[in-house]
Amino acid sequence: MSRALKFGSHLKELRIHLCQSGETSKGVRQFIENHYVDLKKQNPTFPILIRECSGVQPRLWARYDMGKESSVSLTNLQAQDVLKQVQVLSQK
After folding, report:
1. How far apart are alpha carbons 88 and 55 in whole angstroms?
2. pTM value?
3. Average pLDDT over residues 31-47
């Protein structure tokens, strides 16, 4: 599914915050393992930042034109649900 996801020019950056070992971030870690490479292949110059920090709640941030930002919680989501949230934020 991520193979077809090409980001538009209105989207400037994605940031994923997660815990390296916490249960609430398990789906986010699986998303990174299963989908990150395909996303980068489709968007090779697009910045996708992965930020790991012990004890942090998983969250996805998107930065758009004019510095506008939007975020969603990824707590306890499965990898496919994380991918859906990436799609939603990339189309705003």
Report:
1. 26
2. 0.91
3. 95
